[in-house]
Prior knowledge:
The chain is an alpha+beta fold. Helices cover 54% and strands 14% of the residues. The strands form two sheets. The chain has a five-stranded antiparallel β-sheet with strand order 2-1-5-4-3, with helices on both faces. The longest helix has 19 residues, at 154-172. The termini are far apart.
Amino acid sequence: MRVPVSRAFQDYLDELAASTDSAGLFAAINKIAQFYDLTSFAYILAPSEKASGIKLISSYPTSWTSHYLANGYELRDPVIAMARAVPDPFDWGLETETGSRWIGDQLFMREAADFGIRCGFTFPIRDRRSQYAALSFASDHWSPNFRSCFERQRQVFHLLAMLFHAKARITLTPMSAVGGVHLSPREVECLMWATQGKSAWEIGKILNLSRRTAAFHLDNAKSKLGVRTIQQAVALFCSSQKR
């Protein structure tokens, strides 16, 4: 019996909140991908606009991802180039109309297709730390179910991608110091959501914490940073991210 969407979403959030490493992050995104019958996904994170030092969480064939990273394919990947250029989700592939207009490296796409990565849809992500990231779901062909999933659930997947990135960037590229003051990962996580205008109650819901616990972490961060208000702590946090 298929579980309700709300239950699948909550399971995803629970897995995400509990994750402490790349394996935990993989388990979270894999859980929601399986719910939608999407077997191939890849999340890529670059610490800056430069492609070096990328982080990858993927269910693509390891033969392809190893080949991809070993040959520096992130520098020529047309999907990454497109994700850097546009802020909105997009579909891509050898046989798509949109793809035929912008994909310049057909040889690259054909090589990827040999590994079953023939088409897909991608959700570009930006943040205030000038990090680039994207979450993609791929297939070896454009089946009606695969295409309709993207068309019907675009906003849902965009939200899932942003939530995933918010957790992944802290887990994979932790920033424990703000203005020279060291904060705990949970304090950083709560402050990050506070920069998005979230209240302690909303942060608790997102991170699967009580409102009181979220407020406790925010107050600790505020105290460590030597400021009186959460708004001042958020300002320091945002300032440190831009450096």
